[in-house]
Specification:
- This protein is α/β, with parallel strands linked by helices and 506 residues long.
- It has a single domain, classed as Amidase signature (AS) domain (Amidase signature (AS) enzymes, Alpha-Beta Complex), CATH 3.90.1300.
- Helices cover 33% and strands 14% of the residues.
- Strand 4, helix 4 and strand 5 form a beta-alpha-beta unit.
- The longest helix is centred in the C-terminal third of the chain and has 24 residues.
- The protein is globular and about 60 Å long.
């Protein structure tokens, strides 16, 4: 493990480990003079160079910020003068999913047709991260336009899972997931229309938060659905997820839904990092979201071990089902109705410099990921999709699922609902993701946090096994409760392990 050691004027020896560092350990090392932002940035750049296109060739990164070292040097000067009191992420390298607008780097959605697209300004969340002192070190690959769960695209190709190079890293934010698992940055961002923050978190032994609808602005994120889209952190620890959420949450007039979040943002989400947070909690294990076939056995075993950990840490776990769950949770997606409208609005926001002006031009440009072409053409052919009766029926049915979830939580007096993020292991490259459990959050607007649950049995391809994530969901604005429960589990269970394919560099 690579470390920096220091001792001065009789003081005790302290050490900082670059490997899987956190915001708090980095800032402590900077404050003590052990670490500079330039050194930290160089560490991540070296790892990207060694492992992204060489070695295991994860293919997680689309672009490295050419000014990263220059910006890091500026931040070192700022840190020396002011510390981090007013800039809580000062000097912290962040990997952005490349559907987040950046005014100083292209924002491509991993699509060849947008390869030259430089937005006129930063996404709201990017602006907040930069204002907090974060350093955008790189932008990551994604499923083209975030329209699927496998992290493959016309611009970036296929990203690999660092725990098993034959598997996908989840998606669509799998580039960020693989990058954070492989230690290419300290913090990361994802977007989640179906489950695309939580799927990479599950598949890469990470933490991902899909926030309550209205907590975090989607302005400046290449959209799929203005109903389902959310953005949030993908990181290695619950503490760092809380620190990121502190910065990301807030009202943005450009995304009116965030008006509903006013009054629901606490002083700091880090106030809820309680190692005893599971004591006295009531957790509902939703049996409807577990499989019963042989393919589900490894995931189910991790769920059972998670229940044991939670019980040992003081929680009561209640197994339950929701009446008619399959019927009430089926056919709720609005993506196909909203994509064309949302995408055209985004392209319009790019102004006259936009490389294409509409979905129709995007399709005509060629060079798209071939399996998506039929979908693009089908959705382009829709006329006035927001007036389709089926669209309005599905919107109304979202309330049925919300009611079913809230009724179950009230009846059982639950603090949160527990389930595996995916009923079976993440799939091999070339296959579509199956049996993911994103619907409970994406169609209610309720928040969910995915955390490390465990690993499958080791194999030759997966020397320490494949990560399996568990998920906790709560009512609207319950992020503080979910962070408290997740942190207690994380601290008590100590699940995360780094992948064997990207060891520490000499």
């Amino acid at each position: 493990m690579r470390q920096i050691n220091s001792k001065a004027k009789g003081e005790h020896v302290s050490s900082f480990s670059f490997d899987e560092a956190t915001v708090s350990t980095v800032h402590a090392a900077m404050a003590s003079g052990e670490l500079t932002c330039v050194a930290l940035t160089d560490y991540y750049l070296r790892r990207i160079e060694a492992y992204d296109q060489q070695g295991p060739s994860l293919n997680a990164i689309l672009a490295v910020n050419p000014r990263a070292r220059e910006i890091a040097a500026e931040m070192d000067a700022e840190f020396a003068r002011f510390g981090v009191t007013d800039r809580p992420l000062l000097g912290i390298p962040v990997v952005l999913k490349d559907n987040y607008d950046t005014c100083d780097m292209v924002t491509t959605g991993a699509a060849m047709a947008l390869a030259t697209s430089t937005p006129p300004d930063d996404a709201f969340v990017v602006a907040r991260l930069r204002a907090a002192g974060a350093l955008v070190i790189a932008k990551s690959n994604l499923t083209e336009l975030a329209l699927g769960g496998t992290t493959v695209s016309s611009l970036g190709g296929q990203t690999r899972n660092p725990y098993d190079l034959s598997l996908t890293p989840g998606g669509s934010s799998g580039g960020t997931g693989a990058a954070l698992a492989a230690d290419f940055g300290l913090l990361g961002t994802g977007s989640d229309t179906g489950q695309s923050i939580r799927s990479p978190a599950s598949a890469n032994s990470l933490v991902g938060i899909r926030p309550t609808r209205g907590l975090v602005s989607r302005d400046g994120i290449i959209p799929i659905s203005f109903t389902h889209d959310e953005v949030g952190p993908i990181v290695r620890t619950v503490e760092d997820a809380a620190r990121m959420l502190d910065v990301m949450a807030g009202y943005d007039p450009a995304d009116p839904i965030t008006a509903f979040g006013v009054g629901h943002v606490p002083r700091s989400y880090t106030d809820f990092l309680d190692a005893e947070g599971l004591r006295g909690a009531r957790i509902g294990l939703l049996d409807d979201l577990q499989g019963r076939a042989a393919a589900h056995e490894e995931v189910n075993a991790i769920v059972e071990s998670s229940v044991e950990h939670m019980t040992r840490l003081g929680a009561t776990v209640i197994r339950f089902r929701i009446a008619d769950f399959e019927a009430v949770s089926r056919d709720l997606s609005l993506q196909s109705f909203e994509f064309k409208v949302a995408f055209n609005r985004y392209l319009d926001s790019l102004g006259p410099a936009a490389p294409v002006k509409s979905l129709e031009e995007f399709i005509a440009s060629g060079g798209l990921y071939p399996p998506f072409l039929e979908r693009y053409e089908r959705e382009q052919a829709l006329q006035d999709p927001l007036s389709d009766p089926d669209y309005h029926i599905r919107l109304l049915r979202h309330n049925e699922l919300r009611q079913a979830v809230m009724t179950a939580m009230a009846d059982k007096q639950l603090n949160a609902i527990l389930y595996p993020h995916q009923k079976r292991l993440v799939v091999p490259i070339g296959e579509d993701q199956v049996e993911r459990n994103g619907v409970l959050s994406n169609s209610t607007g309720f928040p969910a946090i995915t955390i490390q649950g465990g690993f499958s049995a080791p194999t030759r391809a997966a020397p320490i096994g494949v990560p399996i994530g568990i998920e906790l969901l709560g009512p609207a604005w319950s992020e503080p409760t979910l962070i408290r429960l997740a942190y207690a589990f994380e601290q008590g269970a100590q699940i995360r392990r780094r992948p064997a394919s990207t060891p520490p560099l000499p």
